[in-house]
Amino acid sequence: MISVFERQTDILKLISQLDISPTMYKNAEEKYKSLAAFLEKNGILADIYPQGSFAFGTVVRPSANDPNANYDLDFICQLRITRDDIAPSKLRQDIEDALLSSNVYGGKLIKCGECFTIEYADISGIGFSIDIVPAVDESQHIKNELFKLSNNPLLIDTSIAIPRENGKRNYNWITNNPRGFKKWFDDINKPFLDYNRDERRAMIFENNQTLFNSVDDIPSVLEHSALQRVIQILKYHRDMYYKNLSVENHDELKPISAIINTLAAEIAQNASPASDVFTLLAYVLNTLDIYGMQQTISFEEFRQNHSTCTAITRENGKWLIQNPANPQDNLADKWNSNANIPKMFFKWVTICHKDLIESMKLSDHQFYTEMSNAFGEENVRSNWGSKYTTSSPKPINTSVVSKPYRAL
Amino acid sequence: MNLDKNEIREQVKQLLSTYPKLNIVKSDNSTIHLAGSIYVYRNALNYTVQKNYMVEITIPISESNTLPKIRETGNVISDNYPHRYQNGELCLETETSMRLRFIDGLDLVAWMDEYVEPYFFSYEYYTRFGKYPFGERPHYLDGIINTYQDIFHTTDFIETSKLLIYAAESVYRGHATCPCGSGVKLRNCHGKYILPFALDKRKRNIAISDLNFIRKEISKYE
Questions:
Q1: Residues B85, B89, B95, B98, CA torsion sign
Q2: Does A403 contact B at CB distance below 8 Å?
Q3: Is B39 on the interface with A (CB under 8 A)?
Q4: A79 and A11 in one domain?
Q5: Residues A10 and A58 in one domain
Q6: Does residue A357 sit in the same domain as residue A244?
Q7: Between B83 and which of A91, A144, A344, B91 could a Cys-Cys bridge form, CB atoms 3.0 to 4.6 Å apart?
Q8: Is residue A207 domain-resident?
Q9: Do A116 and A157 fall into the same domain?
């Protein structure tokens, strides 16, 4: 039997292929820097910075079923003014006008509710687009309100206001805080990142000598701590699992990445920074499983027995996963309007545990089958070849297949 | 299964060589009982099942219409799974569907391949994703009607009933108007789905007995 360590290493190899590549990273960086320069030339002083998985170092190539899928990276374009200085529709219009006037951006601009999407030509065969969300600094009196409500008041200062469309070309402000979210995450991630860091950086350098002059040149976003790997594994597993649920509503039911980031980081705070990826993954999944008890027992009972578990609460029947940097943002908002979302979420947690932790005890062949189910047969086959098995299952002919009859 | 005893014994032999962990535990004039484990390794819809299941199989050898039956004895199938009878038998499919397939020459190995293994596949898939990979039959009368909807390629209950009545009670005439109400000649409409019932008396008998059963049950509500 192939050792657990080797199996885990094989899974990590699979996951690392979904990383943003150093080339792609450099490319993205150039793109958003030149966009900032372009805006400045047009009289718009803005800071453009990544948010979401690109900022967290947890990029997973989307649509995992399609190896040719696009990278879709999110950026905030924050003007150096506050909410009190401009109307939301004016902010949208100014950015749009500037982008449309450009030969470079005008032709590939797509507008959406909160952002502009710029689609670039493929880079070495991989499609690439960036989402730009216009924003300004949040006003001081709203920050003061948020400060009072927040569990992490020190993060509030970076709050921003974003125009969101609430009707045809009608915009109002919404508050968010991607920089605060990133700071919160980075603080938790730091000890995980520091552990064995030199070794990891040396490895990246060795594999990308043409891109970097020295180890010091490697941007930290290309490094992955155990915590970041755990998040990538969960996101990839999520994409594959929910894709199979049903074509019509899998996107509706899928837990958003912000939920996975928040919960994994929140739980990891109580784990040892020296944990290896799979120990940490097991710890995160076991803790999430405990949270799942709130589906059946009352919030009071849950709080009595698990007073330290506060990342997901269900007080008065209302699910709450608070955005750590924005007390007004309940990441589990949708869970309260569609009961299937939390139900599927906790079911998915159980399946992750079965696929990624319990499968280590199976025979090589069965392990391979479980991994094919988790990550897609083609992916697994192209990475591992016949290392674990040479046999393949007999297909069921779906055109003449039997349907089970329901007993009374 | 409408086969003679020797033929069935020959099929059992093939079954045992395909599933080497199955054994004959009892055999008499009317039935053969098998028990042991079967290895299911099947794939569909990007999902693979690879698992052993403990089962007991009862194969009728009297020349009757009785179908083979299977029970899962390893407590894998959850108690609240709706596709199992109270006595533990697995509801693989409607009798209508399986009988018609046996008439078309289905043997025991193919029965395992087309009904038993996909049943376990459906179970595991349902457990993982919360939905049936190939659908399911509703219970009781609706399941039988649903089977005929598949056979006749129809969706409407009335249309299906008219075609079933025709298959059970009329003499097939290709130039007659199709009973579905399309106004098109039968041979250019649902004829190809009805013809097998006209050509094989055993199939027609199945249609007759299902129709009688449906009529009897519906009359209870009238």
A1: positive
A2: yes
A3: no
A4: no
A5: no
A6: yes
A7: B91
A8: no
A9: yes
Verify whether the Cβ–Cβ distance A398 to B134 is below 8 Å.
yes
Q: Which residues of A touch B115 (CB under 8 A)?
A: 402
Residue A164 shares a structural domain with residue A254: no
ipTM above threshold 0.95:
no
Q: Nearest-CA residue of chain B relative to A354?
A: B128
Facing residue for A393 by CB, picked from B43, B90, B131: B43
Domain with A268 in it: 1-18+224-386
Q: Does residue A126 carry a pLDDT above 80?
A: no
CATH code, domain with A110? 3.30.460.10
Domain final residue, candidates A157, A176, A195: A176
Of A283, A262, A309, the closest CA to residue A53 belongs to: A262
Nearest to B137 among A372, A398, A405 (CB): A405
Structural domain total, chain A: 2
| A245 and chain B in contact, CB less than 8 A | yes
- The model's pLDDT over B62-106, given as tens digits with 9 standing for 90+, comes to 766 789 999 999 999 998 899 998 888 999 999 999 999 999 999
Alpha-carbon distances, residue A137 vs A11, A76, A142, A157, A178 (angstroms): 42, 11, 11, 9, 12
**A216, part of any domain:** no
Length of chain A: 408
DSSP string, A138-158: PPHHHHHHHHHH-SSGGGGGG
The pLDDT, as a whole number, for residue A402 is: 86
Inter-chain contact A244–B43, Cβ cutoff 8 Å? no
**Nearest residue in chain A measured CA to CA from B83:** A406
Q: Tell me, yes or no, if A377 comes closer than 8 A to chain B by beta carbon.
A: yes
A58 and A5 fall within a common domain: no
Nearest to B143 among A396, A398, A405 (CB): A405
Predicted confidence (pLDDT) per residue in A91-113, tens digit: 999 999 999 998 888 878 888 88
Q: Is residue A185 part of a domain?
A: no
Q: Which residues of A touch B148 (CB under 8 A)?
A: none
Shortest distance, CA A235 to any CA of chain B (angstroms) = 17
- Fold of domain B5-129: Ubiquitin Conjugating Enzyme (3.10.110)
| Residue A5, domain member (yes or no) | yes
Interchain CB contact of A63 with B (< 8 Å): no
Residues A235 and A161 in one domain: no
Residues A231 and A303 in one domain: yes
SS (H, E, C) B159-194: HHHHHHHHHHHCCCCCCCECCCCCCCEHHHCCHHHH
Q: Which long-range contacts (CB under 8 A, 24 or more apart) does A351-356 make?
A: A351/A241, A351/B128, A352/A234, A352/A237, A352/A241, A352/A285, A353/A282, A353/A285, A353/A286, A353/A289, A355/A237, A356/A11, A356/A233, A356/A237, A356/A278, A356/A281, A356/A285
Residue in B42, B47, B97 closest to A394 by CB: B42
Distance from CA of B109 to the nearest CA of A (A): 14
Average pLDDT over residues B131-160: 93
Q: Do A373 and B136 touch (CB under 8 A)?
A: no
- Nearest CA of chain B to the CA of A298: how many Å? 25
